[in-house]
Amino acid sequence: MNETFATHDTFVIEKKFDASPARVFAAWADPAAKALWFPKADEFDFRVGGRELNRGGPPGGPVYTFDACYQEIMPDERIVYTYNLDMGDTRISVSVTTVEFKPSGGGTLMIYTEQGAFFDGHDTPAQREHGTTLMLDKLGAVLKNT
């Protein structure tokens, strides 16, 4: 019998962008803009209680399913969502994420905070933080080039 366990952790990533809070917020709120830096959503309903769902993964590898529900949206200021991440039929984590957009020196300081429960060693907080950092770096590149 395999032992089951949950690892709980919180990580915070701060990114400075040379774009207004409204522009950075829009990169999260508009499905076409978000698809430039985050996997294209199968469903995208950006409102409190709305759902974002996408599936994908490496060729020949497992299918990952990101299933999020928006809990709070304050335009140009804050987004809070909960999400499950599944690998095939296996739930690998459940998280609460807060994304804050603060004016800073003519740009935006974005503060991304994720509080997660990571299950049975399928993913770790360090792996998630690393992947999230890469994703937010891609957001920065998109904001710089658009």
Q: Cα distance, first to last residue?
A: 52 Å
What is the CATH architecture descriptor? Answer: 2-Layer Sandwich
Q: Structural class of the helices, strands and pairings?
A: alpha+beta
Sheet with most strands: strand arrangement: 1-7-6-5-4-3-2
CATH level 4 superfamily? START domain
> What would CATH call the class?
Alpha Beta
Helix percentage: 10-25%
Indicate the proportion of strand residues.
over 45%
Mean pLDDT, to the nearest integer, reads 96
Instruction: State the CATH topology.
Output: Alpha-D-Glucose-1,6-Bisphosphate, Chain A, domain 4
Rg over CA atoms: 15 Å
Total number of β-strand segments? 7
Number of discrete helical segments: 3
Largest sheet entry:
7 strands, antiparallel
Order of helices and strands: EHHEEEEEEH
Write the layout of secondary structure elements.
Layout: E1 6-17, H1 21-29, H2 31-34, E2 43-44, E3 51-56, E4 64-74, E5 78-87, E6 90-104, E7 107-119, H3 125-145
Structure description:
The chain has 146 residues and is an alpha+beta fold. The chain has a single domain (6-145), classed as START domain (Alpha-D-Glucose-1,6-Bisphosphate, Chain A, domain 4, 2-Layer Sandwich), CATH 3.30.530. It contains 3 helices and 7 strands. It has helices spanning 21-29, 31-34, 125-145, and strands at residues 6-17, 43-44, 51-56, 64-74, 78-87, 90-104, 107-119. The protein has a 7-stranded antiparallel beta sheet with strand order 1-7-6-5-4-3-2. The longest helix is centred in the C-terminal third of the chain and has 21 residues, at 125-145. The mean pLDDT is 96.
